[in-house]
Every structure is written in structure tokens, then in C-alpha cells.
Amino acid sequence: MKNLFHITQRKYPLSISMPIFPLIIFAFTFLSISILISGCQKKQQQTANQNSAQQKDSIAANTTDTTKNKLNANLQDLKGTWSGKMGAFKTTLKITDQTQNDFKGSITVAFRDPLNQQISGKFDPATGKLTMHDVLKQRYQGKYNAKVSAKDKLSGTYSLNDGQKFNFNLSKK
């Protein structure tokens, strides 16, 4: 009976395996902190890059030479606020800068996730065709093809990069 209750001794003393536990905890903590810090730095860099790009666009728009802003007498002035619908969604296009056939501005579409986008485009006064594209990379980034049918009417199609298309009709205020 004595052998049944006999406690066997360990082959290695407990003190040899104990230093490994703090080492494992230290390594796990170090890796966790490293991953956390590197992830935060990437997000800060992305935010800084987006802010920098927006500031450059703003500075470029503000420093445009005034002689370039003078339009030909034949060219229609597109600058101003255009409003209407894109599909069933309220839409506002603001053209803030026009030099000859090129223009810049912003568009807001009241999708479920509202689209607020900077745009850049070209206008052909001979045909009345207008093309523009979204400048900032976003979920709803796409291209616009339109025609200025009357002096203050703009109609066309907005094509998302994923293939969806929306018709729009805008009037200049």
C-alpha cells in the first residue's frame, strides 16, 4: 500500500522552468504594444496625407492667376450653384473655379451615406458636353458625363467605379 500513495518526484526542479513564464509574458506584452503603436502611426500618416492633399488643392485654388479666370466671351460661365436630383437623391454641385474649358468645385449627394466630393472637369462649348470626375478617393468615387442643354440646365449620368449608374438633372440657381 505504501507504493500507491507515494508521491513521485519531478525530473526537473520547479525553479528551472519558472524563469520562462515571465519571459513569455514580457514577449507577449512587447508584441502587443508594438502592433498597437504601428497601427496608430499608419492611421495618423493616412490622416496627415489626406489633410495635406486637401490643403494643396485649397492653396492652388486660391493662388490661381486672375488673368486665367477671365473667360472668353463665347464660353458659358459654369461657375455657381447647380441643384437638383441624382436618381431620387437631392444633389448640389458648386463650381467655384473655371478657366477656359477646365473647372473645379464640389458636389454633395444625399445618399444614405452622403457623398461630399471635390470634382474636376472639362467643358466643350462647341458640343455642350461636360465631363468631370471625383478628386478624392472615397467609397462613391466615379465619373460624370453630362450635357448643358439650355443655358441653366445640366443633365447626365454618374457612373460609380463599381458599375452602378445614376441619372442626374441639375439647374443653375
Q: What keywords describe this structure?
A:
173 residues, alpha+beta, Lipocalin, 2 domains, eight-stranded antiparallel β-barrel, 2 helices, 8 strands, 39% strand, elongated
Task: Explain how this protein is built.
The chain is of the alpha+beta class. The chain folds into two domains: 14-62; 80-172, Quinohemoprotein amine dehydrogenase alpha subunit, domain 2 (Lipocalin, Beta Barrel). Helix content is 27%, strand content 39%. The chain is built from two helices and eight strands; from the N terminus they run ααββββββββ. The protein has an eight-stranded antiparallel β-barrel. The longest helix has 43 residues, at 20-62. The model is unreliable at 64-73 (pLDDT under 50).
List the helices and strands and how they pair.
Elements (H helix, E strand, L loop, with lengths): L13 H4 L2 H43 L17 E7 L2 E11 L2 E8 L5 E10 L4 E6 L7 E9 L2 E8 L4 E8 L1
Antiparallel strand pairs: 1-2, 1-8, 2-3, 3-4, 4-5, 5-6, 6-7, 7-8
Number of domains: 2
CATH class of the largest domain: Mainly Beta
Low-confidence stretches: 64-73
What is the end-to-end distance? 103 Å
Global morphology? elongated
Which range best describes the helical content: under 10%, 10-25%, 25-40%, 40-55%, 55-70% or over 70%?
25-40%
Overall average pLDDT? 77
Strand content: 35-45%
Radius of gyration: 31 Å
Oligomer: single chain
The named CATH superfamily of the largest domain: Quinohemoprotein amine dehydrogenase alpha subunit, domain 2
Q: If helices are DSSP runs of H or I spanning 4 or more residues, what is the number of helices? A: 2
CATH topology of the largest domain: Lipocalin
- Main β-sheet, in a few words? 8 strands, antiparallel, barrel
Series of secondary-structure elements, N-terminal to C-terminal? HHEEEEEEEE
By helix and strand content, what is the structural category?
alpha+beta
E-strand count: 8
